Amino acid sequence: MAAAITLAAEAPKLSSANTGFMLICSALVLIMTPGLAFFYGGMVRVKSTLNMLMMSFISIGIVTILWVLYGFSLAFGTDSGSLIGWNSDWVGLSNIGLTQLWDGYTIPIFVFMVFQMMFAIITPALISGALADRVKFSAWALFVALWATVVYFPVAHWVWGAGGWAFELGVIDFAGGTAVHINAGAAALGVILVIGKRVGFKKDPMRPHSLPLVMLGAGLLWFGWFGFNAGSWLGNDDGVGALMFVNTQVATAAAMLAWLAYEKIRHGAFTTLGAASGAVAGLVAITPSGGAVSPLGAIAVGAIAGVLCAMAVGLKYRFGYDDSLDVVGVHLVGGIAGSLLIGFFATGKGQSDATGVFYGDHSFDQLWKQCAGVFAILAYSLVVSAILAFLLDKTIGMRVSEDDEIAGIDQAEHAETAYDFSGAGGGAARTTALPTAVADASKKVDA
Q1: 254-298 residue pLDDT tens
Q2: DSSP one-letter string for 184-230
Q3: What is the per-residue DSSP string for 255-300?
Q4: I want to staple 190 with a disulfide (CB 3.0 to 4.6 A). Which of 59, 307, 332, 385 is the partner?
Q5: Are 119 and 311 in contact (CB under 8 A)?
């Protein structure tokens, strides 16, 4: 992510091209949240579909308001102690001029603000996949508000805000490997360790109810991710955004193929769920690294992440934590892989002149910086998220009742169902007489 820099001798002027580009990228990032909703919604059972969609959609509403009120100020305001930012003029966005530029760049503050808003929206939505089938909607909504405030906003400042400790240390995170994916994946692990497993975990198959919906969601994520990644350079005057665009496509393709190859060797089949999950794993891994590696490096990053994430999704059965839709296996592991591989594959020719172990003077310096950023953010998000979940569980309760979980969280929490099968039998449309035995059987089915 391009962050605030010192103004050059000649102050930058508003660029209509970069401003328009960033508005388009902002819209692309927004479409990722409905895409995520479809991706997750297809992976749950029928009785949880609407709840899964709503857990993503509510993040759009809650985080948008919080970002305008104080989130943008906390994340990108004037640094305080390398831990948090603040700018009272940005509270409510009421004291920002329409043509006032973001420091050192050719786009208005409003454009940067709305682009970053979309990142803040999707990050807590990512967590929801780990909690499928069992969380009260009201508790989830409150968790989103609290988590965004005490976890996402500060971490965004650490990584991208001028003065943030990770930014000043030199941790490379082009578009959110640490602040978004490791942050969300660690939070998911913290929460599920507190709230426990679904009823029937390891006993019921809990298969995806709509793989076409999963593929649709993955396609929307892949499409929107170009705005997520390429837009993070805040323009494309020097070609780095174009490099990121290319690497996003390359790494995603490599990860999908690697996941499918692993799946075929390990389980004997190429599955659509594997293709979709592999693509998302590649997108996650290239998010922090795509501005620092070459296209060949992006192939390596994607392939390594595809295999590691495919292996990681099975860990929940070995260790007994119920990560419903593999948020830990894909986002936490993929984010770690992509962030640490910068320390090996950074060429020094992209967003930074820092080089990895395989380039330049073969120094481990950048790798140690990446390790510091990765594990500090992982630990902070894991611990604070677990504490938030514990406090909510002990006060208003995080989980629905066992009966509601078994009957279906859609009906219990939303008084709706995703699909109406009441007319599927077609009994009212029959106009021809049926043989007696067939008619009797038909009545039993309709009943």
Answers
A1: 999 999 999 999 999 999 999 999 999 999 999 999 999 999 999
A2: HHHHHHHHHHHH-PPTTTTTS----S-HHHHHHHHHHHHHHHHHHHH
A3: HHHHHHHHHHHHHS---HHHHHHHHHHHHHHHHHHTTTS-HHHHHH
A4: 385
A5: no
